[in-house]
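Work Package 3 (structural annotation) set out to generate three-dimensional models for the target panel prioritized at the project kickoff. During this period the team completed the workflow that converts sequence records into discrete structure tokens, so that structures can be stored uniformly alongside our sequence database. As a representative example, we reproduce one entry of 653 residues exactly as it appears in the project archive.
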Amino acid sequence: MLLEQTITAEQTTESHDSFDNIELLRFTTAGSVDDGKSTLIGRLLYDSKAIFEDQIEAVQRASNERGDEYVDLALLTDGLKAEREQKITIDVAYRYFATPKRKFIIADTPGHIQYTRNMVTGASTAELAIILIDARKGVLTQSKRHGFLATLLHIPHLVVAVNKMDLVDYDQKVFDQIMADYKDFAAKLPVQDIVFIPISALKGDNVVDKSENMPWYDGSTLLHHLENVNVGGSRNLVDFRFPVQYVIRPHQNFRGFAGQIASGRIVPGEEVVVFPSGLGSRVKSIVTFDGEQAEAVAGDSVIITLEDEIDISRGDMIVRTHNLPQKSNQVDAVICWMNETPLNPQGTYWVQHTTRTVKAFVSELNYKIDVDTMHRSPAQTLALNEIGRVQITTTHPLFFDRYEINRHTGSFILIDPYTNNTVAAGMIRGRSRRISDLVEAPVEPARPSIERRKSSDVVWEFGGVTLEQREQRNRHKGAVLWFTGLSGSGKSTVAKKLEQRLFERDIHTMFLDGDNLRHGLNGDLGFSDNDRNENIRRAAEVSRLGFGHGNIVLCSFISPFQSERDFARSLMPEGRFFEIFVKCDIEVCKRRDPKGLYAKALAGEIKNFTGISSPYEEPQNPELVVETDLRSTEEIVEQIIAELEARGILPAK
């Protein structure tokens, strides 16, 4: 019976080609000790006929030698001798299988608390996490810990598999209680998607085939969910990042730079800039083992050649000219401590970030996080498996993105320079704020700062429906898209076209235009620097209210000063504000001049006109740069939608 369900090497070879072009899903399993993670993976492999005959025969022999009354499918993944002797998982085990719909890479991670660091390793590249809960034990501390880690690592999809239902007589009340308990815990987390499935990994109920023992459950089986869950939006195909691993120079006529594209896509002819030198060039060619390619995307290992001779070495990063990462030697991060020796706040470590390795120290330990309560508490150090927020200072700058938008360039590891052990894994939240940012910043008295003037007696009144409830009903997240650029650059044109596209997808939107606000709410304001600041302050506050109702708020304002846009950003939660620089050559804007304003400004009829008699400060580090004089409105709208999908605001279409 067992051998009838296995496959042979010949069958695998014949079907190999059919799997080349189907989508890949990386997922991890997690949970408390002995919840059945390895058994579940063994069941998935066995029931999906992804096991060779010699493998199942070896497992049968091992099960018989141990006196088991059943074939222990966990042995398919518990590869270490210590694991088999103790019947537990210690290290991360990776397994690969495929169905006609999708390819899978599984990371089977340990459940013991002392191996939480291994779980972080296995989950760091996952797009989905399966958290197993023993139906007899209910929700345990380790189940919560792994749920928290999964969201900390920004894994977009969670499946809570309530295992061993056969040991509680497939009781629906047990499943419902566990689901309610875990939902209460998950309400504290930024969970994008969570599904609950009752299973028995040992018996096979609801793993691959529908269970006849649980007629009360009308959801999908685990494999069906894995085959159909939408994971396309988790890849960042917008921000091109190419960390250089190696310089290839076989002879004098060829000089290329080898590496794996961390995110985004690139084609020959595109303008790029190299960090840290800041030198620019164009992509001459993209080369692989199969020859020159017309395009390369995230995950591709390629050699890139440039049109100009530029000094580039390992650790440098090639990016698009108008889509730059953040650059700083001080970063704000969350780290998981993975070493038995606690964090030494006065110690020196190596930071390995992409292909760049630099010396660093923890300049500040802000707090550690209790994963059971989500409470933050002061700390002097971090012990094994503890999680905390820190500020890290490096001897040379890092080139990074926030982890939530780019897992590859937003993550790093800390290495002990004396033992070469990895002591922590980190997720970058952004650039640290320094005192020098405040005391050394140039003062421009002619440009007043934006202030929020309010009485100390005013208290914010929350509505009866939360933002999370609205987003769950809307099936998308709220956000503010702040379109900034010169008059005539096409801000409103792009915003309105985008609004139409979002409306067609049943996305809840709100459109704010500078002229419209000046007809009413801002009708008392002129165009002095003071009035312009107040105009944007009011607009930003209105956009905040629209966001609070779960809308995607499209704001079209020239907003010429960086301080104005920074104020608007400060009102929003991290990751929900998108500064979109609508870039267009001013000569093109003058030719367009849809309202005749440039002609009047050049004739002296309009004072303080941006781009003519008043400056425009280009965004320092916008989420997106769109060039309306080089690309069509449709192309730009597609670019913005792809960005929103990549960052989890919109569900992938």
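The first helix runs from residue 9 to 16.
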